[in-house]
């Protein structure tokens, strides 16, 4: 299931790039993130708790950054296991473009789920995935521009 979107951030591209690579900022923005730990410059371990329809699960997973072209773009890939709920995996290509003093952040992502989650139906999974992606980038924008009162 493919997801894409765009977020205008009132900050220079270099600042946005640094924030996208800062585990403390990412932890604040990932919906349901319980823990995010940097293993190496390109690898993170995460614990995320989510409720999708009637299914609640904690996912333990790995996040990897690849195709890194500072301060322009990268691919963030992740895979999480949620016990009997199943698994989720996917990636997002993130591109940063300068637009005057602002930065346009474009993302296109693809996600797959298996196990109990897959039984919920593609429409629910698709709409939930789109909502989670939008929430992440909206919260990211709010944290970065100091409007964190709006985040959440």
Q: How would you describe what is shown here?
A:
This protein has a single domain, classed as START domain (Alpha-D-Glucose-1,6-Bisphosphate, Chain A, domain 4, 2-Layer Sandwich), CATH 3.30.530.20. It contains three helices and seven strands. It has helices at 13-20, 23-29, 122-145; strands at residues 2-9, 33-40, 43-52, 55-69, 73-81, 87-99, 102-114. The longest helix is centred in the C-terminal third of the chain and has 24 residues, at 122-145. The protein has a seven-stranded antiparallel sheet with strand order 1-7-6-5-4-3-2, covered by helices on one side. It is 26% helix and 50% strand. A hairpin with a 3-residue loop joins strand 4 (55-69) and strand 5 (73-81). Helix 2 (23-29) packs across helix 3. The protein has 152 residues and is of the alpha+beta class.
Broad shape = globular
Distance between the termini: 25 Å
Main CATH class: Alpha Beta
What is the spatial order of strands in the main beta sheet? 1-7-6-5-4-3-2
Radius of gyration, Cα only, in angstroms? Answer: 15 Å
CATH architecture: 2-Layer Sandwich
Low-confidence stretches: none
The CATH superfamily name is: START domain
Largest sheet: 7 strands, antiparallel
Individual helix count:
3
- Mean pLDDT, to the nearest integer, reads 92
CATH topology: Alpha-D-Glucose-1,6-Bisphosphate, Chain A, domain 4
Beta strand count: 7
In total, the number of domains comes to 1
């Amino acid at each position: 299931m493919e997801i894409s979107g765009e977020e205008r951030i009132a900050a220079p591209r270099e600042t946005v790039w640094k924030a996208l690579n800062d585990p403390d900022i990412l932890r604040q923005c990932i919906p349901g993130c319980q823990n995010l730990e940097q293993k190496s410059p390109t690898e993170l371990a995460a614990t995320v708790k989510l409720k999708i329809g009637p299914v609640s699960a904690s996912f333990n997973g790995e996040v990897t950054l690849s195709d890194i072209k500072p301060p322009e773009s990268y691919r963030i890939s992740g895979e999480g296991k949620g016990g009997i709920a199943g698994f989720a995996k996917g990636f997002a290509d993130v591109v940063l473009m300068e637009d005057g003093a602002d930065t346009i952040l474009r993302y296109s992502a693809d996600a797959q789920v298996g196990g109990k989650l897959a039984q919920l139906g593609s429409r629910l999974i698709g709409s939930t995935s789109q909502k989670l992606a939008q929430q992440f980038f909206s919260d990211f924008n709010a944290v970065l521009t100091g409007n964190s009162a709006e985040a959440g």
